[in-house]
From TrEMBL:
One of its GO terms (cellular component) is respiratory chain complex I. InterPro entries: ComplexI_NDUFA12 (IPR052618), NDUFA12 (IPR007763). GO terms for biological process: mitochondrial respiratory chain complex I assembly. Belongs to the complex I NDUFA12 subunit family. This is NADH dehydrogenase [ubiquinone] 1 alpha subcomplex assembly factor 2. Coiled coil: none annotated.
């Protein structure tokens, strides 16, 4: 491919980069991914840290320990949210459904449904 292998993630995806070269007019590095399974790849499987690196939102590729620390924090937040839901008497695994919502807003009598209709009624 011509790039430098920068790292791998836990799934086996490989991340490559061609460094920026301002003398040739390339201000940003070119970065890409070679998925471990090219036929069934989903971006949802990629960690947020690697996604940020690919999109040039961070200059340094993530380390394995950084990714593991962030996963541990996310799991801790999920556990704490489940505990709070149970404490409030809610089922933490229940999905929230909004059945009382209509697809369009309902306005009071003071608004015209079609602008100008009220003027026609007065004439």
């Amino acid at each position: 491919m011509g790039g430098v292998l920068v790292g791998n993630d836990q799934i086996g995806n490989k991340f490559y980069e061609i460094p920026a070269d301002p003398s040739r007019g390339k201000r940003l590095p070119k970065r890409w991914i070679i998925p471990a399974t090219q036929h069934s790849y989903s971006q949802a499987d990629m960690s947020a840290e690697w996604d940020a690196w690919l999109r040039n939102r961070r200059s340094v590729p993530p380390t394995e320990s950084e990714i593991m620390d962030n996963l541990a924090i996310a799991k801790m937040k999920k556990i704490n949210a489940d505990k709070a839901a149970l404490r409030d008497g809610k089922n933490p695994n229940a999905s929230i459904r909004h059945t009382d919502m209509s697809s369009f807003p309902v306005y009071g009598e003071e608004y015209e449904l079609t602008p100008g209709d009220e003027d026609k009624k007065r004439d």
